[in-house]
Amino acid sequence: MGGHPRRAGVPLLPPLLLLLVLLPPGALASEAEHRLFERLFEDYNEIIRPVANVSEPVIIQFEVSMSQLVKVDEVNQIMETNLWLKQIWNDYKLKWNPADYDGAEFMRVPAQKIWKPDIVLYNNAVGDFQVDDKTKALLKYTGEVTWIPPAIFKSSCKIDVTYFPFDYQNCTMKFGSWSYDKAKIDLVLIGSSMNLKDYWESGEWAIIKAPGYKHDIKYNCCEEIYPDITYSLYIRRLPLFYTINLIIPCLLISFLTVLVFYLPSDCGEKVTLCISVLLSLTVFLLVITETIPSTSLVIPLIGEYLLFTMIFVTLSIVITVFVLNVHYRTPTTHTMPTWVKTIFLHLLPRVMFMTRPAGSDGHAQKPRPSYHAELSTLNCFRRAETRGCKEGCACQDGACSHCRHRRIKISNFSANLPRSSSSESISAALSLSALSPEIKEAIQSVKYIAENMKAQNDAKEGRKAQEIQPLKPEEKSTETSDQAPAL
């Protein structure tokens, strides 16, 4: 009565069987792997090559998997990549019978515990040549060891930027053992090219192909032969970014040079536009200089194009200054030389199929004024100033016999005069009769006004002839500048 009654028909499980039921399923397997690990590395030396016979080489199967092309530094000529180095070899000390260890066929161990080939990147551009061994290696019961460490390599790459940004590059990556020759380690290439199944596409470069080759090289330092596996990485630059941000602006700015020769000379902005275009091209040339390698071996074509365009813009500035200098010359300050008239007004218009403006011909016949002088029209300006015919001033209506007689004599004399200047005709007419001082003063004023108007007309015609002259070199420079961007 003091204890609990036992349930009838329910047997009590043994304590050992109950403990086995409550254990996790992997507890027995972990115990087997623990015993296997202790047995494999009990007398293992990770420094000694895993061969039964010292004269036998260790066969290393090698393959590189490209994970990412990080960047290509054109200035320093360095290619940075993220790679997985797959290495497979056989270690006779790491064999076991799976039946003795609960059927365990594989085991993962730290890479520091086993022997590894010292395969490095020969053309490494940084000081760290070794691969990080923090990843684990996969062991198989047959003694096969598979080790796939990831690594970021910075390899030297000779970059040719002649056709930048439409260039192709060939960068090589040379892998091999640094300490062991072919008699100790022999490399076997897995496949014929780099594994790109897990490649992450780059936004600037596209991989065309990456074949691999094995070489056996004898270096000058040593007598032994050292094997290596070299991958040739053929990459192509994606030019969309540079086309939009570099090529198209350069072309548009270059074509602005043509507009300089279409601007009128009176606007005063021709030289300003030329200098603005020259400064813009200089800025783009500096941008390209920071992008491409600092080498004198090759010059990119786009750099040659910008330099060539800058030379043409500089020449356009010189021509514009010459055109403006000629444009603002006047006949009163400069006299047009005969050779300039011959070349620019007669020869060049025929060569360039140009027609001279109407009225610019200096040999055109000008209408000559009639010099029939009738002194009866030179009346006094006010009726109160008329003093009679005897004092030399014609009357208002010319009805008196004295005025009629004098008008006939002057008309007959003017008909016999040569068609010379108006001043000579007036002087000849004045010599026939004695005029009053008022009329003489008026005639001298009219003569002065006529001479000034004639000088102004001559200056205007000379200016028109000089305006035709700058048109020739300006149009010739326009044709040359039209061809410059196409080069």
Automatic annotation (TrEMBL):
Segments of this protein annotated with the region Disordered: 455-487
Principal location class: membrane
Domain Neurotransmitter-gated ion-channel transmembrane: 246-464
Keyword Cytoplasm attached: no
Record keywords, A-Z: Cell membrane, Disulfide bond, Glycoprotein, Ion channel, Ion transport, Ligand-gated ion channel, Membrane, Receptor, Signal, Synapse, Transmembrane, Transmembrane helix, Transport
Cell location: Synaptic cell membrane
Catalytic activity: Na(+)(in) = Na(+)(out); K(+)(in) = K(+)(out); Ca(2+)(in) = Ca(2+)(out)
Pfam families documented for this protein: Neur_chan_LBD, Neur_chan_memb
Name assigned to this protein: Cholinergic receptor nicotinic alpha 3 subunit
Species of provenance: Canis lupus familiaris (Dog)
Gene: CHRNA3
